[in-house]
């Protein structure tokens, strides 16, 4: 099934066919990714999307070709949908829009050709390699402990971590590190699968939630139904708790060569484990250098994002990698760096990049309130009214859909966080982390 219409905003750069970009979103209600089509269309790309039939991505007027997903999360069906979309749209670039998409692609990379799952077709593999770089490094980009260990190997500061698979091992790790500790599932996103444990009681609660053994029947059923790729490893990474301020980056790269890096600090977060809803774009050479070093270590192409923590000594600690665009990307042009435009221009030029200068970064400090995330706690106060809000005024259908999400979240008292974490996040403990 294919729905297609022309969009005059996707004009070729310098004549000829525009770059075709296929957005892949396996999380239908992913708030931040639905803003990506506008950023790519503004840079001259033609945008297609593979997503759920009711996805927010399909509400964007900048999506010119829509490919609805199958109604099952079976890896076999999803891979068939992806192959069909690529055959019909012939993308030059594939952009994974959420963590679930990355986990699925890595599962297909590792298991393709076995257990009844087809291998990537030559055309799809070529597109993925062009879009993501070295596919064998996807685990190091999507599993937090592997990301941090790779960072330490190349000299990027990252917290000590102890990977545990049993409650006893987690208790021993916490005693060795000393409370408070951070416990994280190796594969999670949007604040899900992360807890600050200040006491042994809080650690026990996290272990009871995330280290519960799965029955053999449940594991077998998931494999037979092709859904085992959705299950996170039954492990916890135990790390020291570092007090500080969240900083985020998004790098654009081709074959490990960084073209530019957007960097920002969190102006506001609802809780320490949640993403920022107000960002301040700033130029920080240390964040640019660390991001570029990791991109080179991964041999990455496309867009790769990183979360850092700035401690009391103004030193940056790597927390995790998001091997995809994050909400920092669509609004970078306001801070003087249109990273999408820079990447698409480099993609259209001859490969190699000989003589390329240092990675570009933002030129001016700019504050952005993400919409609708920043308005969920309530109407904007005086401080928030002084910040530019990323409202899609030029996309009325998408705006209406986001207002529905906003009303729903306010009524339920929930946060609009990506639903990629396979297990629901429990309520925050009574003694939460101090405000950063």
From TrEMBL:
<dbReference type="Pfam" id="PF02786">
    <property type="entry name" value="CPSase_L_D2"/>
</dbReference>
<feature type="compositionally biased region" description="Pro residues">
    <location>
        <begin position="419"/>
        <end position="429"/>
    </location>
</feature>
<dbReference type="InterPro" id="IPR011761">
    <property type="entry name" value="ATP-grasp"/>
</dbReference>
<keyword id="KW-0067">ATP-binding</keyword>
<keyword id="KW-0547">Nucleotide-binding</keyword>
<dbReference type="InterPro" id="IPR005479">
    <property type="entry name" value="CPAse_ATP-bd"/>
</dbReference>
<protein>
    <recommendedName>
        <fullName>ATP-grasp domain-containing protein</fullName>
    </recommendedName>
</protein>
<feature type="region of interest" description="Disordered">
    <location>
        <begin position="412"/>
        <end position="436"/>
    </location>
</feature>
<feature type="domain" description="ATP-grasp">
    <location>
        <begin position="148"/>
        <end position="348"/>
    </location>
</feature>
<dbReference type="InterPro" id="IPR013815">
    <property type="entry name" value="ATP_grasp_subdomain_1"/>
</dbReference>
